[in-house]
Amino acid sequence: MFEESLNKAVIRQLWDLPIVQQWSERFGHPLSYFGLPGPSIGDILDWRYYLGYCTAVERLRNDKKQREEDLNVHRLIHKNVLLSDLDEFQLLLGYIEDIILNCVDQVRISPRMSTGDHPLLASFRYDIVNLDFLGGIGYKGDKTKKARRIQALKKLLERQSGADFLLMLTLNVRDNIDDELIRYLEGAQREAVDEQMRETLSWYATRQKGMKEYRLKATVPLFIRREGEVCGFDCFCYPPIAYTGSGSARMVHFVFELTDTNTILHAHSRQRVLEVVNLPILGVNKDTLQVPIKQHPNFNFCCDGLFSFLPAETRNALLTTIPRQVLGDPK
Q1: Alpha helices for the chain (secondary structure H)
Q2: Alpha carbon separation from 329 to 27, 304, 306, 325, 326 (Å, rounded)
Q3: Coil vs helix vs strand at 290
């Protein structure tokens, strides 16, 4: 059974929680949740003060032995829900990509916060979507050559169109679409009007083995931004966080605010592309968020404004991890 890493809990409590609180204050009501909380339902419990109705998703495989393993996870989830006295909760069975694409789970139940007469045309109306994946962003199928997870992300944005929501996305650095990520960044370089931005994108595109998290850090925000704008969203991206998860897996965590612009045309985000590209990649070390010394060339380490949403104690602890020499302080 999957065991959550301590680093993930640190991110959820020190980074995600203030964002959820801020989002809740903006809405002025409990937030509806859709996602992958895992057997411990840790994110739901950590954010429960700000949450309303919760729809969780857990797989149910066909192999007899695997199916029993999955059913035990379902039982544990229900047990934790009961012990935590959560009364507005739904558990859907299946892979979350399939549920997003088809709007029904394996037993033909739809997400509670979906609307529409036909599942294929239904809209989602969730305030938070937490896609805490164990795997990478995509795996091309042998026949279709399409990455189902990528297709699901596009469909999610389409289904949520018209409703503001917070998207949390966690990805393993392992996938089989590295060539696609490089090609995406090369395309972004051709569109860039600023030479420094082209150089920065080139740096991300050419990272070698062991630095895949940097390529994801650059590509995923640009992809979500573009697809979100097509669906009418103003997309704001927080600095991504790379960390070591369960089984020593390298993971990258993203958070996006997607605000509907009520336009019938392509939306334009207030956060500029250059600002997205220039975001730092953060890390986790000894239960603390940190700003790693390894950033793209010409990165400005005087970036405290990016963390203004954090409580003072967390923000100050994060800023003290920036080496003095890169700030021009020899002490």
Answers
A1: 6-10, 17-27, 42-47, 64-83, 96-102, 148-160, 178-191, 195-205, 212-230, 273-277, 312-319
A2: 42, 16, 21, 5, 7
A3: strand
Going 119 to 124 to 128 to 130, the CA torsion angle's sign is positive
Angstrom distance (rounded) from CA 303 to CA 323: 13
The pLDDT tens digits along the chain (331 residues) read 556 789 999 999 999 999 999 999 999 999 999 999 999 999 999 999 999 999 999 999 999 999 999 999 999 999 999 999 998 999 999 999 999 999 999 999 999 999 987 888 899 999 999 999 999 998 877 555 578 999 999 999 999 999 999 999 999 999 988 999 999 999 999 999 889 999 999 999 999 888 999 999 999 999 999 999 999 999 999 999 999 998 899 999 999 999 999 999 999 999 999 999 999 999 998 889 999 999 999 898 988 899 999 999 999 999 999 976 566 554 5
Report the SS3 class of residue 106. Answer: coil
CB 256 within 8 A of CB 323: no
Confirm whether pTM is higher than 0.85.
Answer: yes
Tell me how far apart the alpha carbons of residues 61 and 225 are, in angstroms, rounded to a whole number.
33
Nearest to 26 by CA among 258, 272, 225, 238: 258
Cα→Cα distances 162→32, 57, 154, 262, Å: 15, 23, 15, 7
For residue 6, give every residue at least 6 positions away whose Cβ sits within 8 Å of its Cβ, in sequence order, or none: 287
Q: Is 233 helix (H, G, I), strand (E, B) or coil?
A: strand
Question: What CA–CA distances, in Å, run from 185 to 171, 207, 253?
Answer: 18, 12, 19
Task: Dig out the tokens for 159 from the structure.
Answer: 């289904």
Nearest to 221 by CA among 237, 200, 204, 197: 237
Contact yes or no for 282/289 (Cβ under 8 A): yes
Please report which helix (H) or strand (E) contains residue 35, including its range. Answer: strand 31-35
- Phi then psi for 303, rounded to 5 degrees? -120, 25
